[in-house]
Amino acid sequence: MTIQEFNDILDFAVEREKEAVQFYRDLQNQAHFADQKVFLQELESMEMGHIIVIESMRKKQLSEMEIKQVQNLHISEYLVSDVDQLDLTYQNILIKAMKREEMSFKLYTDMSRKIPDAELSKLFAKLAGEEAGHKLRFEKLYDEWISKGN
Q1: What are the angstrom distances between the C-alpha of 32 and each of 9, 14, 37, 50, 127?
Q2: pLDDT in tens for each of the 150 residues of the chain?
Q3: Per the confidence metrics, is the pTM higher than 0.90?
Q4: Domain extent at residue 47
């Protein structure tokens, strides 16, 4: 893999995270309650943190990167798929966030499997692992919220 290919992939991942930042900003404009806006601002900040993580990958050698094995609760896979139609309750915000992370995970996983170059494949697997971690965070929040009888 060339340095340019490596940087192109990281640029792609950063753009995906910027889209997520904008997604949460747009939801803030639709939120009706201050608590919703605060929560969406926290999610926006988390996505901005993901950009920092991806940018830090530029400084590491690919061989130094560890690919995390992340638990998958599979909650998002069993929830509604048309998230654009959901209103902005806390539960639905979590569903939207889980689905977004699920789709990013699937994208990077598919790219990892389809690219024959071992280094490129490893980079996409690393990005998929990061997205799996984000998805797990939302799944745990959702599970906790449901467990409380909501």
Answers
A1: 37, 29, 8, 27, 34
A2: 678 888 898 899 899 999 999 989 998 988 888 888 898 899 899 889 889 888 888 777 666 667 778 888 888 887 766 777 778 888 888 888 899 899 999 999 998 998 888 888 888 898 899 889 989 989 998 999 888 887
A3: no
A4: 3-147
Give the C-alpha separation, 71 to 47, whole Å.
20
Number of domains in the chain: 1
Token digits for 123? 């980079």
- The dihedral built from the CA positions of residue 52, 55, 60 and 63, taken in this order, carries a sign that is positive
CATH code assigned at 42? 1.20.1260.10
**89 CB-side CA count, 13 A:** 8
Residue with tokens 């977004």: 100
End-to-end Cα distance, the chain: 49
Two tokens, residue 58: 């530029």
* Locus of tokens 């201050």: 34
Q: How far is CA 48 from CA 53, 69, 87, in A?
A: 9, 23, 24
